[in-house]
Amino acid sequence: MKEIDVEEALSNFQPQTEKVILQFQEFVESQFAQLDLDHDGFLSREELWTALYDGNRSTRELAFLSFLLERIHEIALCYQDEGGDKPDCISRRDLQEYFATIFKDLGQNSEATGQAQL
What ranges make up the beta strands (E) of 1-118? Predict the structure, then answer.
């Protein structure tokens, strides 16, 4: 049986991963105002649940919303907003910092994979 080169396998998925993350980021940025039902500048757990069950979402959008719900606390910790007392709410700035961290990590993984292949 052939041994799997994990680094090579991961490097093959990286372009697809980056594409999906970009689509996720674009979805959140374009839908933020619509998802923020009370217009307080934060996406709450309740607002995300409402969006998840509105019945007009694609499978991909449902996956994105589910991810936000699953990671809401982690994302909320990315940036300390004025509303820092809202641990289960996500601001635009939280999302910007979260995506910046993801892309930074992807870039570091890409560099590490490239160095390993040299």
Answer: 42-44, 89-91
